[in-house]
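Changelog note: in this version the structure field was regenerated for every chain. One regenerated record is shown below for reference.
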Amino acid sequence: MTRGRRYGTDLFLEEDGYTTLAAAVSMLVVLSLLFAIASGIWSMSRSGDVQVAADTTALAGANVVSSYHTTATVLDAVVFSMGLAGLCVTGVGLVGLLIPGANAAASQTIDTGLRMLDARNDFAASASRGLERLEQALPFLVAANATRTCAAQGTSSTAYTGTALAVPLESASDFPALEGEQISTEGLSERAGALDEAADELAAAAERTAEAKEAAWIADCGRDGANMQERARSLSSIAPGQNPDYESSITWDPNVALDRTRAYYSARLAAEAPEGSGAEAAADSAARRAFYRFALERFEDARVVEENGRVTSTVELLPRNTAEVRGTTLYTDAVWPSTYEDAGLTLHYGTGCPGATGARGPVLALSAIDGGGARECPVCRFSVGDVGKTPAASTSIDNGFEYHLREFTLALDEYVAARNHELELERRALEAAEGAGQAFEEALSVLEGKRPRIAPPGRYGTVAFVVAGEAAAPEALDNGFAPAAGVAQRAAISGAVLAPDAATDDSNVLASFFSTFEARAGEGGVAGLVSDVMGLWGSLLSAYGNVAENLSSLTNSLLGGLESMGLGPVARWMGDCVDGAVSALDIEPVDLRSLKPVITDTANVLEHSDVSGITDVQELLRSLPLGSTDPAALLEALGYRVREELAQTTITLVEIPLPGGGSVPLTVRVRDLLGGGVGAG
């Protein structure tokens, strides 16, 4: 037994002696197979690990392209939505300038809108430069992230060396909103200033017109106590329907007073009768009848008409005393009877005058007495003075209808002059509005057209090249039943492309950005006529994917809020101009789906390569320097020449000014681009 153990035969001995030879051989075979299989499994595992490393490396490179795509979309969305928000706010301000009482707030609103447009211009230029620089460095960033990820997969026994190449190397991106012309705020500001000046003049003129109209209304029916309406009711039998009352000068029209006057004098003329017996009472009645008839004739065709941009009035003042009667047809028209008396040709108030005893003479004018052509009747003593005292009494004190009629007529003359001046300024304001509308349309047209084409390096995918050095088997697998295992240098390639992920309102490339920006920016603050500029911008930013569907309704909502403030004709025209320009804006929708890296057949990526020699995979794999973690060195070994390497950790593209003051910086963090995106603050 001792001798058997010395030669290793004790493995095949039982307590009672030697085992059979067949059993011993079987045991040897099983042990040999067991250790050989374990060694094989370890070898295959090491060989398969390099492919896993290559897949992970390719995905890491594609993830950088995905992050850039998100960054570019966010930047274009910010520029585009900021331009739209600025123009919408400016458009509301332009309309508000033409609304009395809203002018100050409108100026503030326009200022806010123009500052947003200036910020948009600065941001567009800065973002264009930033994206161009990022695209130039993208092949390096792809390689850097891939190299870092590849090296991180190594273990104490296995080290991986590799990187990923962006396919193609050159960019084909197109950012119209970033690279196009700037929105001209200078021209828009100048036109807004001209409109503001014209609107101020128009508002002052409209106020004077309103004051004159109110004065005419007060004389007609707006004053408590005595006025034309009250006097007509008290002094005549005018029908209530012909003697209406109006609570406000806004709903009242000057022609109401003219209709009332015609009805009043018609009623007075029909009801006129002497107020006593005798020739003097009859003469007074004849004088009143003559005056009422004269007034009725004067007002029969009197009108206040506004047409073709001008107001005309045919209303004249009635004479208020004898002197003024002499300047009318009451004095010059031959309507009075006469007789040939012994003392000569005599004028009477009527044929019923007791003093008319002689032969009938011709009809005469009152001027005949003053001119010596006839004499005054000694009985009725009728002359121009009798006719003159009729309006003199009722015009001089406020219990007469003519007192208020004269007040109305004088106020009406002021109203007509003020309204014509207002209409002239309205035409000037319309010209200024047309200029502002044209500037608005020109500014808006900058935003019209195609949306961005994001086609950076790596748009068709990334190809990873990974190698691993020789590896020795663990000591546990080194024994006499199987030869010592070892794995020679090995390599693998892999390809990755970007696939779209379904986008929702809460999950797209803009959702996280705006929520971060909104938290950093705080409330938008009140800016004139638009109370929540940040909310407006947020709505436009959220609608960026298909903004054409939402823009018109949003503009209508903003302009609709001005309706209750009283839109005048010029303001309404300006509102229609803004709404029409926005509604006609042709904007293509944008795909807001997030892009995620997925593994694909390497051939699908390689066929789009713009670098010669990339398809010689074995040669490229052999060129990789084992153990290197320098992406630039690895790229150079693969024959890639990158144009720029980003050493900075953060790039601030621009600071976005806030309506309430302050600003929020918009930055691109390289560490996030290697696995994240763009951030605010």
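Spot check on this record: Confidence is low (pLDDT under 50) at residues 1-8, 676-681. Residues 256 and 377 are 42 Å apart (CA to CA).
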